[in-house]
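User: I've been trying to design a sequence by hand for this structure and keep getting stuck. Would you show me what you'd pick, starting by listing the structure so we're on the same page?

Assistant: Good idea, let's start from the same input. This is the structure you sent:
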């Protein structure tokens, strides 16, 4: 049995938000993921995540914690949405926050109805609750009106298969904007496309509506959804560019992430293309695993990936979980006039599990960031077990030089992070 007091230090965290007492799954606290930390005006930081004994179990629920000292200490984790113990229905998954200007905290999540299409934890209805007292009390849940898609089961009684994996940010006309993964229903019999990427905007959050009155706008839906024939396209993360465009990175099972851009606040997106280090440069290799990109102060971008296509140690791409390591960091910078508008440094080894298994051994980066005065904090699940935070300063990130192909002899200067 691994020593948890040793393992929690393996990734060199600066903050601890939640640490299970043991690997015993009985209390349904050993699976912790989709870890989203957000700032509430005048009220510190909140953390929202999906918790269970292990991912996809029928005890899956949404958890909330609060910090008043920038993440140094956290309140006791409390369950704010979960299954009905008497029926086993209503498991709650993949919650994400929407914070209004006046501090109302909405949490939107997928609620299982007892009807499966693909996976229990992805088939569900979009549901919302809110709190006006920073998580002390919560409203009754209400179902949101997420339009159905041509990719859904033709039977309207079967819910959609959708996940929002990052927190929405105000990057579309100041409104909360985020990407959505939608799995293609097996009832359609279409093996060419496993999942597609769409986009959501929540335009009336700042009016503090009741949960059922939250408006949901959908972009790139139905035939306009971003997709790859023969592959899956999933888990979009989005950053703003200095010229007003939006830049999106998505994971795939094609051996690398893909990217797209929007010039109209996220309404329309370009055809997905493999993510390169720079125009004309090598593909950024990565398996089917989270690969988020985040914006930080000073026009810097931080991109996290594994730097291999799934062939890692004894594993191959079909080994979908244990090859999700190590975590490498690449610095990104905007390049005006380039085909791919963000170029990247070489990979910097950032952290790893060492292959030590707790509930899992892979480093699935279902993470989030908050900005600080001199950089960002990456809030991440370590092996979907510990919930931790690690500081990255702008100086540390900018130490990773980005090569210009026009100056081939230019050398990288790799700073030491952590």
């Amino acid at each position: 049995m691994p020593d948890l007091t040793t393992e929690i230090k393996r990734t060199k965290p600066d903050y601890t938000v939640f640490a299970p007492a043991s690997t015993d799954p009985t209390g349904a606290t050993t699976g912790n993921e989709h870890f989203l930390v957000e700032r509430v005006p005048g009220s510190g930081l909140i953390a929202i995540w999906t918790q269970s004994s292990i991912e996809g179990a029928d005890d899956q629920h949404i958890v909330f914690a609060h910090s008043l000292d920038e993440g140094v200490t956290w309140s006791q984790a409390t369950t704010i949405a979960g299954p009905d113990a008497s029926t086993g229905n209503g498991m709650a998954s993949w919650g994400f926050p929407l914070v209004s200007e006046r501090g109302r905290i909405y949490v939107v999540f997928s609620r299982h109805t007892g009807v499966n299409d693909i996976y229990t934890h992805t088939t569900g209805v979009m549901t919302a609750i809110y709190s006006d007292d920073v998580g002390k009390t919560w409203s009754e849940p209400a179902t949101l009106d997420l339009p159905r898609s041509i990719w859904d089961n033709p039977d309207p009684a079967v819910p959609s298969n959708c996940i929002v994996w990052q927190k929405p940010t105000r990057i579309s006309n100041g409104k909360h904007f985020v990407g959505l993964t939608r799995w293609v229903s097996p009832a359609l019999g279409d093996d060419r496309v496993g999942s597609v990427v769409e986009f959501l905007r929540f335009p009336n959050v700042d009016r503090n509506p009741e949960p059922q009155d939250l408006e949901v706008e959908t972009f790139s839906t139905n035939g306009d959804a971003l997709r790859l024939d023969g592959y899956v396209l999933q888990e979009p993360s989005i950053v703003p560019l200095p010229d007003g465009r939006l830049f999106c990175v998505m994971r795939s099972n094609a051996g690398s992430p893909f990217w797209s851009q929007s010039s109209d606040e996220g309404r329309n997106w370009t055809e997905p293309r493999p993510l390169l280090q720079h125009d004309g440069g090598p593909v950024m290799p990565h398996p089917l695993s989270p690969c988020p990109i985040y914006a930080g102060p000073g026009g810097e971008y931080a991109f996290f990936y594994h730097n291999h296509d799934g062939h890692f140690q004894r594993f191959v791409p079909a080994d979908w979980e244990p090859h999700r390591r190590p975590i490498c960091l690449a610095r990104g910078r905007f390049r005006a006039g380039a085909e791919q508008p963000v170029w990247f440094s070489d990979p910097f080894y950032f952290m790893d599990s060492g292959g030590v298994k707790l509930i899992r051994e892979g480093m699935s980066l279902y993470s989030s960031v908050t900005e600080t005065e001199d950089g960002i904090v990456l809030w991440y699940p370590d092996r979907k077990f510990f919930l931790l935070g690690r500081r990255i300063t702008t100086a540390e990130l900018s130490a990773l030089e980005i090569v210009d192909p026009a100056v081939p002899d230019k050398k990288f200067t790799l700073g030491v992070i952590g």
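That's my pick for every position. To get oriented when you compare it with your attempt: The two ends are 27 Å apart (CA to CA). The chain has one domain: 80-378+394-398.
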